[in-house]
Amino acid sequence: MKYLNLMIRILFVELHQILQLNSIKSYNKNYLIRKFLMSDEATLSQHLSELRKRLTWSAIVLIIVSIVCFIFHQQILSMLMGPASGFPGMPNEKPVYTDLTEFLGIAMKVSLMVGFFISMPFVIWHIVMFVSPGLNKSEKKYLYIFLPISMIVFAAGASFGYYILFPPAVQFLISFGTDIATPMIRIGNYVNLMISLLFWMGVVFEIPIALFFLARIGVVTPKFLSKNRRWAVVLAFILGALITPTLDPINQALVAIPIIVIV
Which among 1, 33, 200, 208 is most buried, taking Cβ atoms within 10 Å? Predict the structure, then answer.
């Protein structure tokens, strides 16, 4: 009986020590988890704080540049009217506006659009600085090379639309119905058409860069592109019909041919 009581005491002591040890381990484990979560929350908070600062600076620059553009909105609108200069159908070679607030709204819209385009390099720089710590060396290399190229290509596409595509389109649209009706071109309609055309021509010229990245990640292959090139030609003329403001095949071909060449 004496030995039985001794064994029971020893068993209780061992059990108590085991429980204490498990409690300490559990506490340490919970402490490490809490520490990890707190560290993760701190890192996330730092990233969000950095993102907020960069977005704030980008918004400030955009607002300042847009205000400057609004000060020079007459010069900007005169430049946009360049492709239509010298064509009949505009009183004193100027468009008209039929609402009291129309011209003010167009001036503000154009100022914001041009301000966004001018401040885009600054905004992209902040985006690159935010995401670059999470990229490897190879990814940074492609990013630093192709971002400037993509901006230059977009500007080239917009310039193609401004100098090559838009003048014959305007001439066709103005002269198409002059035997029946007198054209009175509203500035809002003209500017919206111009901005839309320049934007989509810039996007079209970005297609080769998009195809390159799709090929790099394995979505498309050169064999796939060469095999389906005939469909690319059909798609190019469909895009030409959607982008151009006219229905004549000449202007559609002016859009489709560059797409076929660059693809």
Answer: 200
